[in-house]
Amino acid sequence: MMRMVPYELDNGRTVIGIEVKLPKTTLLAWMTDKGYIMCGALDVGLLNRDLADRGILAGRAVGVRTLEQLMEAPLESVTTHAEQIGIHVGMSGREALKLLA
Questions:
Q1: Does the pTM of the predicted model rise above 0.85?
Q2: Which domain of life is it from (predicted)?
């Protein structure tokens, strides 16, 4: 099952949450037109190493089970390109999304 939910940040911008229920796991992501944050399934190393030429703006939070937790959790890793716009490890998902929106 898949669920998509819009969420308005306090800066007036809207982000889209995506929850995909798979056998034995759930994929979680919040996205904007510029980039996204995602649960532990995201391979930031792959994005930085093999897809660096794409300039992907993304962050990863681990140990989250809901979209709400992903919004509040500190980012465990971020892409090099995300760092260049001020997104950093330890920043909450919500704060990162403000920079991506």
A1: yes
A2: Bacteria
